[in-house]
Each structure stands twice: as structure tokens, then as C-alpha cells.
Predict the 3D structure of the following.
Amino acid sequence: MESIPVSIKSLRLEKKLTLKELSSKTDLSVSFLSQIERGESSPAITSLNKIAEALDVDITHFFNPPKSEDFMISFETAEPFKVEHSSQTMYRMSSDFENRTLENYIIEIPPGARNEKMRHVGEELYYLIEGKLTVYVNEKIYELNQNDVIHFPSNISHYYENNSENIAKILCVVTPTLF
């Protein structure tokens, strides 16, 4: 599988687009797109989705989903990845099969880290594997401890932060699927 930066650049050149033209199609700056193509910056999922749409491919084009005949995914063999401007480490824990509706991740959240406030279609569930985590859903505060679960419609404003001194690790299950 090509790396995401190489794949973006190859597709852009294949479609005979300049960085400036891709910039106008995505509303992302030319310098940011150039940094992505050089591997100096990692795009957030939302930015990657804009790039995929502008290049006329599905976002899944940039990923090689795990294949398993017995549908088991091992954390030990999952490839860690990070998204732009985030100190969190994510592990995709979803099988790849037709009509799948769940997207599963294990996310390691370092002390002091938080994700961005968002809302989108679907649902989210967080199971706290270890540590402590503060989750904000519609401005209501939930303090999660190990083995706690929170499940909510993701069309309402939500985000989380790790206010503890230890890494928090969650299983995040979200719909709709991203990859």
C-alpha cells in the first residue's frame, strides 16, 4: 500500500491538478497540502475526506483495511496512527466486510489531551479500558472511570479530555463507518 502522502500526490498528478487547484476544491491551503504530500503534516479525517472528494475517490482509497477470514483483530498487530494536531494514538479495530456499520478504535489519550468539539450523524460509544476520562455531551459533564461506558447520539455536541496524570485508553465504537 502506498503511504497517504504518496497516494494523494499520485492521484493529484494523475488528474492533472495543481496544488492551487486542489486547494480551491478543498478549502485547504496550498502550503498545508504541500506539507501533506511531503509527509511533513498529517491531515485530520475531515481534511482527508475533503481531499478524497476533490480527487474523486472514496476515503477508503487511502487505507488498507485489515483482512481476516475469522474476523478477529489483534491489538498487538493493529497499526497505530495519529491525526493532525493530536497527541492521541489510534488503532483501527474494525473488520472489513460488506455492509459493515460500526467503526471501532482503541484510542490512547495522554494526560492533558482532548479531542475537538464535534457533532455528526450516527452514534458513539466509549468503553474506558484504563485511566479516567471526562466526556462532555451537550455541555453535560460525565466522569468516566475504568470499565465505565457512555453511549450517545453523535448529532449532539461532544468531546472528551484527559484531566488525569495517566494515559486513558478507550474503545470507541462509532457510526457511520469512516473507512
Q: What stands out?
A: The helical segments are 4-14, 19-26, 30-37, 45-54. The radius of gyration is 17 Å. Residues 106 and 162 are 15 Å apart (CA to CA). Residues 4-14 form the longest helix (11 residues).
